[in-house]
Specification:
By secondary structure, the protein is α+β, with helices and mostly antiparallel strands. It contains 14 helices and 13 strands.
Length: 402
């Protein structure tokens, strides 16, 4: 019995005694720049979480003052979260368990915590099992579904033929999602290849499996070919409300779901509208607003319905590849001017700072709004909520900053 008690490690007691810096040092992981805001630390994601591209430098939020060192990734479409034990799982050498360690993995991490608190030496990297250096990978690219080597992927080209666009035929949560967004009319949905994919269409048809029960959007390339489909959970708000009322030990509900293997950072939603940017009826809008950059697909579609051409990063952080496209298109269609209209909330404004730094070195960049501009009128708003009556206010502000 005494031996068993000596082997027991009280993780809850140890976690408050350990900092993220100590964990990173113990595992030999170099940390990116840490930006401290009160008791919260913001930084670029440094976890082995399966990400396929670099995140923004404020994507990872760590609550240093919380006894469990809770953290959350704000990278668009990610939403992973956890405590210090989960963070250690995503840093410790070996196969991780997605930030939810169990069994032997949990016991190993508990032992590491004990070692850190006791001041034992960090892991000796020379004693770790050598890992073969993988061959250089070819540059990442996305292939249209129609040209995919995967037969099942090719069969998804016309997935939108199974969509429902009439709210009267949808379950309550999905119907509410569309009714709150009147710009998503049946005609607009058809043009943008958007709609609700029911969980069951009858028979043995299982196509679009992970998109079932979601509002699904077609992501097109510059020629208009479908690269992938991605889904938005119409029940996200309710699921997120329930999650926030818990101790948040479970993974945060997923708002957007992208198919694994799709390189989102290479594309821009609305990039198929490259030709529409050259249309005469958009030329004046481009001169007035510049090339408008937003976060999500609904923002692009809603602004398009108001006659304002926009493209979305499907993130609140811009990648180098997206920045390259934006600069090129702004020079071609908008006199070299880009207008940032990310969500007018803390996450959107953090993303706007990152995008402003990356883009302003290469072209002229303007802000459409912020929580303080326009007398705070648009604080907390998203571009998809704008009305035609509100556009002149934003346009007048932009002309002042020319």
């Amino acid at each position: 019995m005494a031996e068993k008690n000596r082997a027991f490690i009280n993780v809850d007691e140890l976690v408050p005694q350990v900092t993220v810096e100590q964990v990173a040092a113990y595992y030999g992981v170099p940390l990116p720049e840490l930006k401290r805001i009160g008791e919260e630390t913001r930084t670029r994601c440094f976890l082995n979480c399966g990400k396929t591209q670099e995140t923004g430098d404020r994507a990872l939020a760590i609550q240093e003052g919380h006894p469990a060192r809770q953290w959350q990734c704000h990278q668009y479409g990610c939403g992973k979260s956890g405590n210090l034990v989960g963070l250690m799982d995503l840093l410790k050498p070996g196969e991780n368990m997605g930030g939810r360690p169990r069994g032997d993995r949990f016991k190993q991490i508990a032992a590491d915590l004990r070692a850190i608190v006791d001041g034992l030496p960090a892991i000796d990297s020379t004693r770790l099992k050598p890992v073969a250096v993988p061959a250089a990978k070819p540059p990442a690219r996305n292939v249209p579904l129609a040209a995919s080597d995967n037969e099942r992927a090719r069969g998804l080209v016309d997935l939108d033929t199974k969509f429902i666009t009439d709210p009267a035929l949808m379950p309550p949560a999905a119907a509410s999602y569309f009714r709150r967004r009147p710009f998503l009319s049946s005609e607009v949905c058809k043009n943008w290849r958007v709609g609700y994919l029911p969980r069951n269409v009858g028979g043995d048809d299982k196509s679009g499996g992970t998109m079932r029960g979601k509002t699904v959007y077609g992501y097109k390339d510059e020629e208009g070919n479908v690269l992938t489909w991605f889904g938005r959970d119409p029940e996200f708000e309710e699921k997120h409300r329930r999650w926030k009322a818990t101790d948040r030990s479970e993974r945060e509900p997923e708002k957007f779901h992208f198919v694994k293997g799709f390189h989102r950072g290479l594309e821009l939603f609305g990039q198929n509208g490259r030709d529409r940017l050259a249309k005469p009826d958009y030329r004046e809008k481009l001169k007035e607003f510049g090339l408008v950059v937003v976060e999500g697909p609904n923002d692009v579609i809603a602004l398009d319905c108001l006659g304002v051409p926009a493209v979305a990063m499907c993130s609140n952080m811009v990648t180098d590849e997206q920045a390259e496209k934006l600069v090129t298109w702004s020079e071609k269609f908008a006199d070299g001017v880009i207008t940032l209209m990310l969500d007018c909330d803390p996450e959107g404004e953090n993303g706007a700072r990152q995008a402003l730094w990356k883009l302003a070195q290469r072209c002229k960049v303007r802000l459409a709004w912020s929580s303080e501009m326009h007398g705070g009128r648009f604080k907390g708003r998203q571009p998809e909520t704008l009305t035609s009556e509100e556009l002149p206010t934003l346009s007048a502000s932009m002309r002042k900053h020319e």
